[in-house]
Amino acid sequence: MELDNQEIAKLWKLETSINKMVLDGVRDPKEVADILQKIIEPRVAVEPEQKAKFGFVKDLGVVVVPKGYKHPTALGSFKEEDYKKFNYYNDNITDEHFPNPTRILKPGDRLRVKIFEQTVSGSTTSEERLAFLKSQKAILVGAQGSSLVFKQKRNQLPKGFWYASFDEKERLWEDSGGSHRVPRVDANSDGDFGFNLGYFESTWSGISRLLCFCEE
Question: Residue 48 pLDDT more than 70?
Answer without folding.
Answer: no
